[in-house]
Specification:
alpha/beta, binds iron/sulfur cluster, TIM Barrel, about 400 residues, 8-stranded parallel β-sheet
């Protein structure tokens, strides 16, 4: 019976999926206050996907193993079990925003010093990524305006270092379209801009600004030719000034998150379980559901066969040393290796300074091998069209 649910999804042809998705109104997925009236068609298709996704998100035991098996089958069919390693450089922990789940929020004084790398320091670190034969240089930072200048100066030098045989992936937050243009012209290929939650009210409360702004950034990046990554935080919540939960994420919202990622046709898609971080309004909250995170990843693989899906380090915080391996076994194909110099790694408290799992190169290779995934490394990097996920 449960198996039939997955079969229903697998049976939808790509053309049919496109047709159904195109008919679903984004304002209906996000429960936006600007939705005036949802068409009957949108409602029917949205509810079809939502109810299937919600049921599958709850899979456990044998049903869950079957789900993962199918996700691995899809990965094998479309990606030949090739996987990606990305070398990340976290260039500043300064941030002007105050997302309520993030220890790097501007108000958090417990984080300590805020650091900033120069273009030279970025290049210096990129040398180590090249030496490890990793073909994706991932530059990540808190959201501050200055990163446009620093990073656009560093990119051409990194390209030169790799003799152009490199993919430059950025995660620098919201910026005006002009800045995205500057970075693209400097040589960036990909940009991660997670919506974190597709729910209008939860997004507003948790991130402090409008979901529509974030979605407009995704559109800006896609229109400039970037490969775009987005995704969700599983277990996100919003609290009021007294620390009481005001909005708690529901499985329906998680189903909508997947629907939104599909509707936006992103090239990379992630699910991270929420990890409560010190110095944030959510510090006392419980962590996200790791099992549901894995189910979401498996569903993402089945629904978007070619996208790049990372198995994130937060899985190790909740599931122990094998957490990221479980993510690969659920259909992910990407691991991010941390190349930030060790004395800065703790200060880049992406989810928690105390609990953060810092992924090492050997560990990444080891879990990829255990999962039967062959990492794409230099100098045998295939054509860009293979390495960059294709929709
Ligand atoms: S999630 Fe990003 S934008 Fe929000 S506070 Fe953290 S670093 Fe800043």
């Amino acid at each position: 019976m449960k198996q039939n649910l997955i079969e229903t999804l697998l049976d939808i042809s790509e053309q049919e999926k496109e047709r159904l998705l195109a008919a679903i109104q984004i304002d209906a997925i996000t429960e936006s206050p600007y939705l005036e009236k949802e068409s009957t068609e949108s409602q029917e298709y949205r509810q079809f996907f939502q109810s299937l996704f919600q049921e599958i998100l709850h899979f456990e035991d044998n049903e869950q193993q079957l789900l993962f098996e199918i996700a691995r089958y899809v990965r094998h069919k479309y990606l030949e079990n090739k996987g990606n390693l990305r070398g990340v450089i976290e260039i500043t922990n300064a941030c002007e925003r105050s997302c309520n789940y993030c220890p790097m929020r501007i108000e958090n004084e417990e984080l300590g010093d805020r650091y900033n790398f120069s273009s030279e320091k970025i290049l210096e670190t990129a040398i180590e990524i090249k030496e490890a034969k990793i073909p994706i240089v991932f530059i990540q930072a808190g959201e501050i305006k200055a990163t446009t200048k620093t990073v656009s100066r560093a990119i051409p030098k990194i390209r030169q270092l790799f003799e152009n045989n490199v993919i430059i992936l950025l995660n620098l937050g919201d910026k005006p379209k002009e800045d995205y243009t500057i970075l693209k012209e400097a040589g960036a290929n990909q940009y991660i801009i997670k919506f974190e939650t597709s729910n209008w009210n939860l997004h507003k409360q948790a991130r402090g600004y409008l979901l529509s702004d974030r979605l407009n950034r995704i559109d800006d990046l896609l229109s400039l030719g970037y490969e775009v990554g987005s995704g969700t935080i599983v277990g996100l919540k919003a609290v009021n000034a007294n620390g009481k939960i005001e909005i708690e994420q529901t499985p329906k919202m998680l189903a909508n998150d997947l629907l939104l990622a599909m509707r936006k046709k992103v090239h990379m898609c992630s699910a991270s379980p929420f990890v409560p971080g010190k110095g944030t309004p959510l510090a006392q909250m419980s962590a996200g559901n790791a099992s549901m995170t894995l189910n979401w990843m498996a569903l993402a693989r089945i629904m978007m066969p070619k996208v790049m899906i990372p198995s994130v380090s937060a899985l190790n915080v909740l599931l122990g040393q094998d957490g990221q391996l479980k993510g690969l076994q659920a259909g992910a194909n990407t691991i991010t290796v941390n190349f930030t110099p060790p004395n800065y790694q703790d200060q880049y408290a992406i989810y928690s300074k105390q609990k953060r799992y810092k992924v090492k190169y050997e560990y990444a290779l080891d879990i990829m091998e255990k999962a039967g995934i062959e990492p794409i490394l230099l100098p045998n990097m295939p054509s860009r069209s293979f390495l960059l996920s294709q929709n």
